[in-house]
Amino acid sequence: xxxxxxxxxxxxxxxxxxxxxxxxxxxxxxxxxxxxxxxxxxxxxxxxxxxxxxxxxxxxxxxxxxxxxxxxxxxxxxxxxxxxxxxxxxxxxxxxxxxxxxxxxxxxxxxxxxxxxxxxxxxxxxxxxxxxxxxxxxxxxxxxxxxxxxxxxxxxxxxxxxxxxxxxxxxxxxxxxxxxxxxxxxxxxxxxxxxxxxxxxxxxxxxxxxxxxxxxxxxxxxxxxxxxxxxxxxxxxxxxxxxxxxxxxxxxxxxxxxxxxxxxxxxxxxxxxxxxxxxxxxxxxxxxxxxxxxxxxxxxxxxxxxxxxxxxxxxxxxxxxxxxxxxxxxxxxxxxxxxxxxxxxxxxxxxxxxxxxxxxxxxxxxxxxxxxxxxxxxxxxxxxxxxxxxxxxxxxxxxxxxxxxxxxxxxxxxxxxxxxxxxxxxxxxxxxxxxxxxxxxxxxxxxxxxxxxxxxxxxxxxxxxxxxxxxxxxxxxxxxxxxxxxxxxxxx
Length: 492
Ligand SMILES: *[C@@H]1O[C@H](CO)[C@@H](O)[C@H](O)[C@H]1NC(C)=O
Ligand SMILES: *[C@@H]1O[C@H](CO)[C@@H](O)[C@H](O)[C@H]1NC(C)=O
Ligand SMILES: *[C@@H]1O[C@H](CO)[C@@H](O)[C@H](O)[C@H]1NC(C)=O
Ligand SMILES: *[C@@H]1O[C@H](CO)[C@@H](O)[C@H](O)[C@H]1NC(C)=O
Ligand SMILES: *[C@@H]1O[C@H](CO)[C@@H](O)[C@H](O)[C@H]1NC(C)=O
Prior knowledge:
Keywords: Disulfide bond, Glycoprotein, Receptor, Repeat, Secreted, Signal. By secondary structure, the chain is of the alpha+beta class.
């Protein structure tokens, strides 16, 4: 087990009352008693130190105002002020222990990515190459001792690159430099991330860079688009543009931002076409990083990350210039035309389409990742991770609306893909197609499944807001977000 798995002997710091050990209310141990941290001056810089100290990857957000509930007892730290380079929260400047004018309403929280960074280096695409992981802010390689296709499969899935085609060793894609972080990796194959696999402790190896491990995944990475969201607007289809890169949400600068660029955003989110492309922080100022500047789409791209722009993070902007988008659709009409049912997430399930005022299913003949990718994009659910067939998410009833679906992968909606005429399939419901998209809600740990009529509510609906993170905000779901999911779950 990696040191990164949380056993890391850090008895001084913990995150409580969150959905995982890598998100929650910050608590520190002092004088053998746990206490909280006041949120004055609390932001991503401090959160980053916490995530690093806990081996939880990068900081996604630094929620204030007791988003993860109010602690009891001591408030140990106040006016914490980190530079961002500290190895532990206790190394940051702060008032003396226990000296504060706060109350628990102001308890600070952190949401970490929970995973170390990972990427493919020097390969022909972002889905093939030398495996590199980041640990202690330094990229390093993986030794090929014991490296096989099971391990490679975990890497491919984590990267959103499909399945593993091969697991070359012997520095097939060139030798790395710097640390060799992992040796004797031994995944069971079911892990969501390489960091969950068994391996020697970080940096403990008997290898040389001649033995660097690589992967070749089935996905090309070409159709993979960065995750995207619109925040602080009236619906999920209008707001400030934010993109996810290196597991961190950041904004887009409005320099040369226009309707063509905004149109790509609307298309990617399944929100119709662009009505306007407001700049100048019209939907409020985001927080760092500013990921994209001088964006110049041609209009044919399937995702914003495919448009020409300066390199990630390279910009001459400030957040007063944050770009926004207003799309034609409210974000609800898509849900009426297409939905994924019978899973705990609106971004995974049996595919159902609305036609002639009736919901029906899609046959799995020739159903593949390209088709599924269109579904995920149309729903604003990121990219397709898998295409479970054979009624994996249960059998529908009534109509089987589509068969022989054959998308090229660039369509904005499933209804634009080639397929047999509506209702003209030769299938049974045993062949109902499913999708799992990358923007998947975390599975709640325990919860009764609520059944209303013949419809199974997503399990998380019986959960209180702070028990899972909303994929859109990466924060505990607000009441209105829960209500939105509820609508999706029980529609029509
Ligand atoms: C990969 O290696 C592990 C451990 O050595 C082994 O259990 C597993 O079966 C291997 N996978 C394949 C596909 O050979
Ligand atoms: C579709 O589902 C059926 C029934 O489970 C299965 O036999 C078939 O292989 C599936 N087709 C594809 C293309 O996966
Ligand atoms: C949901 O899926 C399960 C199998 O995963 C199935 O037993 C159940 O009948 C399905 N329910 C609905 C409403 O489709
Ligand atoms: C999908 O369409 C392409 C042409 O657009 C064709 O070459 C291919 O054979 C089709 N695939 C299936 C499974 O029908
Ligand atoms: C539909 O399936 C039946 C039985 O499997 C077969 O006889 C028939 O030719 C099929 N029709 C089409 C259009 O594929």
